[in-house]
Amino acid sequence: TSSSAPLILSANGGIAGVGVNVLLSFNDTDAVAGILRKNITASSIDVNAKMDAQAQTIFSGANAGGLAVGASVSYARLGAKNSAILDATGVTVAAGSVSVTAGKEGETNTAKVQALSVSNNVGAFTGSMNVAIADNCSANIARILGNASTQLTADSVLVLAVGDATAEASVAGMDIGGS
What is the pTM of this model? Predict the structure, then answer.
């Protein structure tokens, strides 16, 4: 599991309640499960990469005063990479079954990004700008590598990547004032 989840709660008040907030979250985890360039003789080979990754930002702000103005930016980026690799470059691999998976049916790898920006302003003159961006650049990869000198012998071979990637951005705001 890999997670990044910063939170900002902001309040400003006075004759001029002005708030400018930027909240950033980055998760660039690189997880690898693999066998790299080894001669192997086995009844079975199972390489399984499992990862649940998330990046989340939550901003909540309030401004109050004769002039109440707020601006907020909430940005979450998930660049997590999950890899299952059997690198048979230049070696001999012999097995009854070979399985290289990055998630399986019923064991889905997940990559979730969520950005939330909420602000409220109360005053004689009010204004606000809210931005929420959720950027999901995640990767879930299963692969067998080799070259012309690779010898891979197996009765069955399974290479499978199963993942669920989501990105959700939400903005909410309320201004109460005389104009």
Answer: 0.81
